[in-house]
Batch of 2 targets.
Target 1
Amino acid sequence: MTYNNLYKNQVDLTILISVLYYFILMSTEFIRVENLCKTYISPAERLEVLRGCSFTIFSGDVVCLLGVSGSGKTTLLNLISGLDSPTSGEIYYDGVPLHSLTLDQIYDFRLKNIGFIFQDFHLLEHFTALENVMSPLLLQGHSESFSRSVSFDLISRVGLSDKVDSYPDQLSSGQKQRVAIARSLAKVPLPRLLIADEPTGTLDSRTGDSIMELILGLSSEHNLTTIFTTHELFVAKLASRIFLLRDGKITSLSPSDLNNESFISSLV
Amino acid sequence: MTSLPSSSIVPSRLRYYFRRLFFHLTIIFKNISSRKLNSLIVIFGLVFSLTSLFVSSIWIETNKSLISDQYIESLDYEMYITSYMPYRMNEIYEFVISDPLVSHVDYIYQTEALFNFEDKSPEYRFFPENNQEDPSNPISITSAILLPSSSIDRIGVNFNFEGNLSLRSNEILISDLEARELERIYNRSIVPGTTINLAVTKRIPYTDGGEVYLKYFDLNIYSNFTVSAIYTTNSARTILNKLLGGFGSSPSPLDDSIIFPLEAFSSSDLYTLERNGLLPKLLVKTRADKMRENGISLMVDSLAALRDRVTARFYFSNCILLDDEIQSMVDEYGRISKSLVLFIPSIIVSVLLVIVSSNITINQRREEVGILRVKGALPYQIILLFFSEFVVLSFISLVISFGLSILLSGILTGTANFSLFYGYLQIPVSSIELNTIIVLGIYLVSMFLKLYSFISQEVKESFIISTRGRKAINKSLFIFIFILLIVGFIFELLDFKESTDNYSRSFSSMILSVRLFLLFIGLCLISLYLVALILNFILIKIKPIYSLLLKKSSFFIHKNIQRPRKSFSSLTLFLLIASSLLSFTLALQTSLLKNIADEQYYLQGADLRIISHSTNISSFEEKIERINGIEQAMGIYSTTAKIASLTIELFGVDPLKYLDIGRWIDVSFVNSSALEALQKLDSDPFGICISDYLAERLGFSIDQSIYISDFFGRASFLSFNISSLIRSAPGLGFAHGVNSKVGRYVEEYILLNKDILSNYLGVSNGTLFFASVSEPKKIESIKEQLLQLDEVVSVNPEKINPNYIGYFILQFVPDVWAILTISVTFILIISVVYIFMSTNYILQQRREEYALLLALGANPKKVRKMIFFELNIYILFTLFFGMFFGILSALGSLYFVKPLLITQEIIPLRLHVNSILMLLIIVVFLFTTLLSSLSIIRAQTKTDIINELRIEK
Ligand SMILES: Nc1ncnc2c1ncn2[C@@H]1O[C@H](COP(=O)(O)OP(=O)(O)O)[C@@H](O)[C@H]1O
Ligand SMILES: [Mg+2]
């Protein structure tokens, strides 16, 4: 059995498990955020970015975090992914509070469960496209050849099979983001949570559209819980659930609200 | 009223310019202070390289005059004049005293003095001495040296004395040996202050030899003279000793004599003596500052010119110079000052540090340059900005360096002579200027090249010469320089081969050695560049090794090693150069120290080296052997004789005892072991060992017979068999060549059976003894016991020959090994600074990457491990190759740097590598790496990850 086949079997297995999850745990809570506060304290000022956010995300949700620039979207994502710790409040994964984990466990959790897509890609400049995709797998401890074949499949999936050996500075922004998307999925088994922080922020609108399409397509294909942030309404419309972040508080919106002219004008 | 406005404009314009200048200065200082660490490193590197260059030129220039003056001051005289027309001596005196080179001229007469003659009749027979008429109440005859009272200041250097060294008109100085004899005769103690009667006399000429009667002497009787001091001689290499024939191991007449004030003589007394054939001689003391006027290396020449001026006018005169001694001082000083060239590795490394740190600064300010360009700053304005910073930094460094070098050159000269040094302080302006231009020029050029590559990045593409073309030119230039260096090196090496003999290092070979050293260092630098390229290539190619060592992270490490930018591969060249120059210098230093220690051990000769007054050898041997703890003792029988026209010293030994006691080495004899050679010598009573030089010069080989003549200057000869060829003997130094380290000043000695000397030639007394002890631990207590004996002068002296010229020089300047030690220390410090700076810089640049890896879920421990591993691959590889290369270079260069390291190769100078020190260097390097990377990794905290990944950053 080649590694490729092995991987396919594993993917099948993951899909199976995901499907099972979907049925058994459908509408079961995945992430619960309770009264989350974050205050940045610097000698110059005291900046209360989040002032008590509470919400619940169920597995399989595609959540959009909508908010103007500087409203604290990235801060909230950092807290959710455990890169930063809150001033007060709590985050639960499957009912387990994040703060109860050790630092090592948090790193491990991130490595296994979370895929990241950044606004400015953050590719390793001295790695080829393929190698960039391989890096999470290698960090997970998979062998080089196994990681290579898995990554090759992923990079084909994002439509860059002819660019595997290109270095980031030889790729366009859209292509870089595709590599980043492939990298965010490069875990075996697949990550449970996909976090994309303004994935289209630095792209022109046409490329942005296709990138969003790709992200959402992949997430629904593998039934991944997905959180993405944006400050643009039309991007937010693609999500199944929308959280508005304003004045450090979260308001849940329904997609239909976004068609309501008067509501939109109240946002601005 | 047109004059009014202009007068008001001028000051406001001035004010405007002032304000602008002030504004620029504040910007410059802000730039410098905002990059404190980098500015400090640049200043450190500049100060170091400038200071070391300044110190060496100030030091050489000042010490040249200081040492030559001090040396001349330490001598009694530099020349003596004899004449076979004694009545015209006053003409010579008048001429010499008026010569500008001369400071003093003294008359000296050497005649005889009698004691205890008062109650004897003219018919009293008192010679031969051991057969006097009345042995119970004998006359004592001794040599009398007549000198003017004022000369006491100068002749004092010849003596160790008890009492008060003065020579007023009723005072005399008596040698220790004579004082003892007088004590026996008079049966009362002779101490400083005792009064005594004597007669200064000269035997009437033309009396027959053999028996000597008192009537043969014109007695000039002097009563109640005070003994002002009792002296022993120290066999310093002075004119007085040269005049009286007391150089080296043959006993000086000064040892058994009195010194009498010339002023005590009436002119009629002196006339009587002169009529009887007493010849005056002139002692000439020169002015030190005039002696070195034409340069220190021409001091002997200045003296020779004085001799020529005298003999050109007075054909009947003969001038004898202290030329060998002065020349050996010049040579020895020349060697130490030339050996400062061994400091060059550390200067190279510090210049490299300056280049690297200025490049890093510019690299860090890449963005700033870009912004300035975008804002419309013209290239010249950007260059001006950097240039003004350069001016400020250089100025600061220059001021610090100058002050520091004046201070350091004094400290280097030794604190004891601190004030002396500053009294002589000389600042060679032109060489300081040159040094400044070279160091700052290198800095400036490297800075501009880097800056230019940034500013002209857009223009670059349109260059007529493409990058590939330029690379080809670089390559051919590189090969050209390489070949040039090799050719130059080979030529100089051939020249060098011709100019050296096996034993001593001449001045010209030192200069050649300096040239070879410089070429060699150039070659090393270029080769190291190649090695660095190869090494970086190898490091990329050995991926399997990484995966073997670090299975999981090997991929990341290998990628990092492969990367073109932000890679530690930029460390390779510098570290290679630093570590190879470091181990090169260290290897030379340890080899030299080992050689010095071995040589001291060998020259000591045996467990115990005992110097005595002249005493009967066989009875003293027995006396020594009676001391508890001493196994065997052996005295050296010696006398002088001639082979052909060469004066030689004969050393008579008991071969088998010498074999046991002496610290023989495998190269003591040529083509034979000490065991074979000495057993052979023992079995053949007429066997001798001669030097290989003598054998070659006279065309003799082993087992041929050879005549030795002129024993004690008498016309007689004996035939001997050449038993083996000797290179050197423990305790006696080389068989050929002047051995000033052991205090032997005859060119050649031969080793033979003592029985010849004692049985055939009647030698019974000696002054040098060797002994072995049964327990090395007890050596100190045995030494104490030996020093209790009357005969013993010294045991295991720390300095085998305290009058060795090298020791004089070392009062003022540090030895070569110290120069090497300082060099090693500095290279080490600079390397540590460099490693710290570069790893810090590279890791800073990679912070974003590491933050990303952490965000992706990499464990910080893993990241840390990866960084350590990667860094250590570079450090260890470069250290390994650098040290290997450095030790190899040290081995290769030992042959031609010898003249800078040692004066005489008594023990062959071999490479000696101290593995503990080498290991220590590796540890220091690794520790520095650890420390510098740790500081970065520790800073990589959680909040840092977020900050590094933020867009606004
Ligand atoms: N590490 C930090 N220290 C201080 N202030 C911060 C830090 N990170 C973010 N901020 C501030 O918090 C606010 C929210 O930032 P962010 O979460 O990046 O907003 P968004 O992603 O919605 O644009 C901003 O005003 C920003 O300046
Ligand atoms: Mg943001």
Target 2
Amino acid sequence: MSLVNPTSRSKASSKPSARRAETARIYAHPLPIIFPEPTYTFLGLSLTRPLNPHCTALLDPITRSAWVENSGDAAILWQRGFFGKGDLSRSEPSWLARQINARKMKGKGLTSEEITAKRRAERKQFKLDRAKAMAAAAAEAEVAFKEEGRVIAPGIAPDGTRIIPSAATWKPTSISVPSEESPPDDTPDELREEIEPIQDLEHLQLSLQEAFFLVWALDCLTVLHPETNEPLTLAEIWNAFQNAHMSSLAPLLALPPPRFDNPFLVSYIAYHHYRSLGWVVKSGVKFCVDYLLYKRGPVFQHAEFAIVVIPVYEDPQDQANSPFKLQNAEPFTWSWLSTINRVNSQVQKTLILSYITIPAESRVPSKVLSSPACFAHYSVREVVLRRFIPARMRD
Amino acid sequence: MQNHPSYAVLGQVLAKYPASGGALFQVYNDLTLAQRWSDIQILDLTACGRAAIKGKRPTTDTDQGPSTCVVVPCSLSESISTSWLRAAFTSLEPSPTEIYVAITTEDTSTVYYKISQGIVKPPV
């Protein structure tokens, strides 16, 4: 149960099925735009308009991202499609909730970071207890053998029970969070009045690919210029997002030199390809890959696929003349591939190499780069990688 | 970004090293606001072309006090080399036994890697 979206029913929500229903209710919409049930139909066409939340974000060229500072917009973009990430949190912006929770120190509801920290502390304590029990049992066996010549199994007590705790049977000895009923609600109100309110220093950060998808493919986001706060037109956004990858001296809205291998374009092709197929696409830096694909979203199940974007130049001359040094554009080594595959198979993800073909400048005129119509000239091909062990994989 | 309180602290360094500005801003916010490090200082590492952050890292063990660590931010799109890492060690006075390299991405995920000089035996 999240502290960021607390619900009034506390007892019913502790059952797993109720939690699942609650999650399905909050994250019901896969995209920010909602298509309501048609109330009027004329000749089979629905006349109700889709509900568009019209969110706003501020472009920040230094961090190459768009910031959603309005918490209502941030909640909508996260809950409908898992766009963006809180810049001080693991997933949705929960920093303010954690600070308020730390102040109140009641700890009845925990954010995901606090749950993880608590679980790690408990696991550490369990390992210490287990090591102590193993050492004690081994010492006892030693003593028994030395004095009486009797060999006893170290881990089993005389009556047959296990002395050494296992992960399933160990319980934490100290309860860090008091579980008794909290005092009535007027006490937190008094605390809030005494201490000044904490300023929310967190925002939801959208990568340039997510922001462009929301602007161009879904038309539910407006991007503002960082200095003038004026909404940018689609053409200005197209130029500014490509300029963000040029050296930092380039002015924001200047026309970028037309290059098919601009890092924004290459990574956007991959992002758009998988998003339009219905996957939720998030950053994969924790697993040494470019993107992770979730079937419904991070709150439902772990990601099934890990995508590595490999750009391929149609014309090698373009690569030689390129001002950008794209990652993975050079032939890779077996050790690199093996490392990434091993990391991902340990976390039960399938590795997919996604080859993006960059069109040759000699074949395609560079004026197509003035609009997103240039995407038609790229192609995406996937290669799925799995480790084959002939001795073990016989079925 | 100019309205963010961290900009007041980092403004000069961001202007001096614009290429690593995004990574520094993100790591600074993560350490001061989310991880709650104390005694934060900004160090200028000219050899690496960026600024580093030195501070006291809070620990959950009650027997150890907070330890001082140095974090060098860099972005995922950069390529770094061992000579770069060596320069980071030599530029710091006194030369630390280990530094943390913070790798940032555009969606604000940060991964920290501990880099030590030479082979280090893992703790028992």
